[in-house]
Write a structure and sequence with these properties.
By secondary structure, this protein is an alpha/beta fold. It has two domains: 50 residues, no CATH class; 131 residues, 3-Layer(aba) Sandwich (Rossmann fold), CATH 3.40.50.
Length: 222
């Protein structure tokens, strides 16, 4: 099995999904048959004991922690949960924009529909403000639209509304503020209907940390 490979790397294993768990199970079978094969399991927020215990009973395992430069991050919590969290997220983004001088703002919502609503609300409330640009970030964007996310825009603050694609898949330089809705939308398999369906729910503690770190990559964040 996998005869042409000597090392297999699985990254972002904290994103516990059916397909990734199946891959880990298959790799365990491969390792039993190929003693020379090496497996590297990686994550920035991994539960080391969970994955170590899964493999250690059958194989020789080692853990390696690599330090990364993360700038200080200030956590600010809302007092009460707002039922209309999309509107609350827009309000918080505007508050940051109007009271803080530096850094782009990343707002993480559940899906494209919420992003469209948030951008419409933002642009309406900041209709006469020329110091910012509101941008969407999700899987349906064109290459040109995605490129704009990473461009440096002199004298313009980027206010980016994203799905959880910004949680771990990409890093946007310049982001100093993250507004986290604490919600997600993900595809799961419905065994009864035999189709993939979208499930809406709250994010895990690991996801909270992943989103939080988007603000402290290159400078002090909030």
């Amino acid at each position: 099995m996998l005869e042409q490979y000597s090392v297999v790397v699985i990254d972002e294993v904290q994103e516990r999904k059916i397909d990734s768990d199946i891959v880990l199970g298959l790799m365990k079978q491969c390792l039993r048959k190929r003693k020379d094969l090496k497996l590297i399991v990686m994550s920035s927020t991994i539960d080391t004991c969970l994955f170590y215990d899964y493999f250690v009973s059958n194989f020789t395992c080692e853990t390696l922690e690599v330090g990364s430069r993360t700038c200080p991050i200030e956590d600010i919590y809302l007092d009460d949960e707002d039922e209309n969290y999309v509107q609350a997220a827009v309000t918080k983004a505007i508050e940051i924009h109007q009271s803080d001088e530096g850094g782009d703002i990343l707002v993480i919502l559940r899906g494209q529909d919420e992003i469209d609503l948030a951008l419409t609300d933002l642009n309406k409330k900041l209709e006469n403000d020329r110091s910012y640009i509101g941008l969407p970030l999700h899987e349906e964007l064109s290459e040109k639209e995605i490129t704009q996310i990473f461009e440096k825009l002199p004298n313009k603050r980027k206010i980016i509304f994203s799905t959880n694609i910004a949680e771990s898949s990409i890093t946007i330089d310049g982001v100093k503020h993250v507004v986290d809705s604490g919600m997600k939308k993900e595809k799961i398999w419905n065994e009864q209907k035999k189709i993939e369906v979208l499930k809406i729910g709250q994010i895990t503690k690991n996801s909270v940390q992943q989103r939080r770190k988007r603000a402290g990559r290159t400078s002090v964040g909030k």
